[in-house]
Amino acid sequence: MTSVTSTRGRRASLLRRLLPLARRAMFGTLSETYRTCGRAGCHCQVGPKHGPHLYVSFRGPAGTTAGYYVPQALRSRVRSGVAAWQALQTQLRELAELNRRQLWAARPPRPKAGRPPRRADGPTRVRPA
C-alpha cells in the first residue's frame, strides 16, 4: 500500500506537469490521407495520389465526427499538441486514481458494534415468535 506522503508527492509532481501539457494540448486523432485532384491528366488520376495530408478528426459536442486538414507549416506543432493531449489524458487518469486512493484512506472507519451480520441475497425471512 502506498503511504499518504508518497501519494501527496506524486500528486504534486503530476499537477506540476499538467500545466505545460495543457498549454499546448490539441484534442483529436491524427491520420494521413492521400487524395486525387480534379485536374484532367494529373498523375493522381492513374498513379500515386497527392499527399500525405495531415488530418485531425475529433468527436464534436453534438456527438458527430468532425475534422480539419492541417497546413504544412503547422504539422509539427499539431503533432506535438495531439501528443500533449494524450499525455495529459494519461496523467489525469493517474491523478484521478491517486485522488480516489487518498479519499478512501481518509474516510472514517465504519462502526463495528451493533451492525447486523451480512445476509445472502434474497428475501428477508421473518421467523415466528
Offer a quick outline of the entry.
This protein has 129 residues and is α+β, with helices and mostly antiparallel strands. The protein has two helices and three strands; from the N terminus they run H-E-E-E-H. Helix content is 41%, strand content 17%.
Structural class: alpha+beta
The radius of gyration is 27 Å
Which blocks of ≥5 consecutive residues have pLDDT under 50?
Answer: none
Q: From N to C, what is the helix and strand string?
A: HEEEH
Strand order of the largest sheet: 1-2-3
- Helix content bin: 40-55%
Task: Count the beta strands.
Answer: 3
How confident is the prediction overall: mean pLDDT?
Answer: 86
Beta-strand residue percentage:
15-25%
Query: Kindly, what is the distance between the CA atoms of the first and last residues, rounded to a whole number of angstroms?
Result: 48 Å
Instruction: Tell me the overall shape.
Output: elongated
Number of helices: 2
Q: Return the domain count.
A: 1
How would you sum up the major sheet? 3 strands, antiparallel
Can you put this structure into words, describing what you see?
With 129 residues, this protein is of the alpha+beta class. The protein has one domain (13-106). It is built from 2 helices and 3 strands, in the order H-E-E-E-H. It has helices at residues 4-24, 75-106; strands spanning 29-35, 50-59, 65-69. It has a 3-stranded antiparallel β-sheet with strand order 1-2-3, covered by helices on one side. Strand 2 (50-59) and strand 3 (65-69) form a beta hairpin. Helix 1 (4-24) packs antiparallel against helix 2 (75-106). It is elongated and about 95 Å long. 2% of the residues are buried. The model has no long low-confidence stretch (mean pLDDT 86).
